[in-house]
Predict the 3D structure of the following.
Amino acid sequence: MAKYLLKRIGFIIVSLFFIVTITFLLMQAAPGGPFTSERQLPPEIEQQLNEQYGLDDPLHVQYVDYLTDISTWDFGPSFKYPAQSVNDIINRSFPYSLVLGAEAIFIALSIGVLLGVFAALKHNKFGDYTAMVIAVLGISVPNFIMAAVLQYVFAMQMDALPVARFDSFAHTILPAVALATTPLAFIARLMRSSMLEVLGSDYIKTAKSKGLSDRVVTYKHALRNAIMPVVSYLGPLVVAILTGSFVIEKIFAIPGLGNEFVQSITNRDYTVIMGTTVFFSVLLLISILIVDLIYGLIDPRIKVASKGGSK
Amino acid sequence: MPQEQHDQNVLDINNLHTGFLIDGELHHAVVDVNLSVKPKEVVCVVGESGCGKSVMSLSIMNLLPKINSKISKGEIIFNGEDLTQKTDEEMNKVRGKDISMIFQEPMTALNPVFTVGSQLQEVLFNHTDMSKQEARERGIDLLKQVGIPRPEKIIDEYPHQLSGGMRQRIMIAISIALNPKLLIADEPTTALDVTVQAQILELMKAIQEKEDMAIMLITHDLGVVAEMADKVIVMYAGKIVETANVVDLFTEPKHPYTKSMISSIPRMDEQKNKLNTIDGIVPSLKNMPHVGCRFADRCPKAFDDCTKITPQLAKVSDDHEARCLLYDACYPDTSSIEKEEVNQ
């Protein structure tokens, strides 16, 4: 197990190296620079700024500098906001994104799985059709429209929840629901089809022939098998929710990391772009690793490590 | 049959009709099945694919999908109670305890995500108040009984770590865990290779003798029948066409279908370039003839009456029943039976 983990972490580091290199080169290839603005700076000042940030060094020197900094988890200073480092920005804004993302994932997973199981159990009946209509709506309505609708109904009309910002738990509900809609619908459909397949399988017949109640058959024997496709969808889901949240963050005026990410691109704030990219990559790689570990826990056929001796 | 003897039977199926809803219409896959299983008896139900043998066994367990199938007539008396009248909760007390079942595909019959032990102990926990420790000991004991080597180790392994034969042994262990009165085995050896088949059959026979249970063995393999059966029931297209004890069936088969089946077994003492086969296939549920013998269009001995008169199952010699118009007893006594058949 330890060996497997070390190996996976090694792969993560190699992947990160490539991601950093490619982002660095792409940033260099893009025309313009952080201090290019309409109001021309005096050349001396621009010269001084470039010197201060090491931008006049040859490319390979800048690259090596950056690699060394990043390996100590130091993303450097922001070009746009000189008083802040990239680490400050991430540390400040990520907690918002994390809370929002975690809530959204929780909603999508719990309700999506329930809806899918429900639809499968009511296969070809009214309940099934209702659940699937909800799912298709959820998939086809983009989350920014969902956000606007939610704001209109729950905040403007019913005055039940705050319309924007991110101060208390009540503030988190609307953005989390808006963010969760599409993955929820996707999970529901995934869960329904895999549950239907599992319910028709031989071991379900065996379980029934043992005299187990429908509840035990469904929730113990069927669910654990049927949830596998959903688990493998979790990795990409985590990333999609964390990075895709910038639209929602914008709509609900949440100072999250997605927001900073988009801002940094328009600002041409190299270090912030690269910092957030690397940060998101680390998140993605770690969540994929965790998903793989969970996979092995749920399904013994998937060997996570060469454990269990000679067999 | 005298009432007293009737009571002793483990299972009595009377006039069972089971059908499937196809396009809103009920088509019967099992028609007018009458059979009884005595204690400690091995009854083999034989017939080719699609003849209704599995549907019949699932009817007994009440495990057919409720959405598109239905027992429309008849009763299944087990332990003096009609199983067709029981609710699902009541059936859950019978399934796995008094009647248990082994399926055809050992590779997929066990849940891949639970250990052998947990699937084995589950049936114990479900029907008894055993403690974990007792259930584990009983589990190891059962695995020993079905000839699993190193049971203390295997009990903690997952199905995918075991071979098909081992898995079928585990299915047997699960099915005999609570000493059921009746074990229904639906083609338990079909998916196994020949040497393993023989081992599994031997094992079932040994357990049956030791535990005094009755077995209803569903198969299409006459070799299995010869090895295991006391009584044989031959089914064709949802109906029983012949019932006999195993010796009579092989020495004096009465129904042309049984005869053709027996003659299609390759024999060691014959040199042949081509095996005997029965031409054609079992008619599908939707195309089942309403009148006449269902085997008529494949029957080498068919004559005019076969497509016009529906034969009934009747005694053709001692302890030997057949459903064929070659025997006068099988002509229906009155025309009313015929009409009933048409009305279906």
User: Anything to note?
Assistant: Residues 86-265 of chain A form a domain with the MetI-like fold fold (CATH 1.10.3720.10). The radius of gyration of chain A is 24 Å.
